[in-house]
Amino acid sequence: MVLDYGTHVIISVDAGATLVQVDLSSSYVSDNLSEGSSVKAQTGLNFFDKLKFDISSQNTQQSSSLQAYQSNIQYSLIQSHGGGIPFYPGITLQKWQESTRNNLVAIDRSGFPLHYFINTNTFPDLPQPTVGKVAIAVSQAVERYFKVN
């Protein structure tokens, strides 16, 4: 059933384009786990540095932290979702942004679980106990689907 009808009724979709950077460096992150916000900040600064954003840092500690973060990256990848041109090394951010105008993708969505719509208002001809059992069965099927997948 879930494969045929899905798990949710989507009520809105946000269209746009995204750039996602993935940096792999397990030792740096695990060594600095207690400083999670610092690691996130260095990740963001590294992303902007790769996109050639001029974010000048007055703070030498922040600069040395960024250098430490960058020296621990074992693998890094920037992926684009949306846009007419894939984001590749050497492309400017402006050129990629211009390609997104008519090449949008779904970047977020919201909705309600399917079993929310199984009630006596949507199935007025069925007895309430039957509707309740069907709603529970659908909810359990969705839970099993998420556990398996």
From TrEMBL:
InterPro entries in the record: MACPF, MPEG1
Entry keyword Protein biosynthesis: no
Q: Where in the cell is it found?
A: Cytoplasmic vesicle, Phagosome membrane
Start and end residues of each MACPF domain: 1-149
Broad class of the protein's primary localization: membrane
A single Gene Ontology biological process assigned to it is: innate immune response
What PANTHER family does this protein's entry cite?
MACROPHAGE-EXPRESSED GENE 1 PROTEIN
- Protein name, entry field: Macrophage-expressed gene 1 protein
In which organism is this protein found?
Champsocephalus gunnari
* Top-level taxonomy: Eukaryota, Metazoa, Chordata, Craniata, Vertebrata
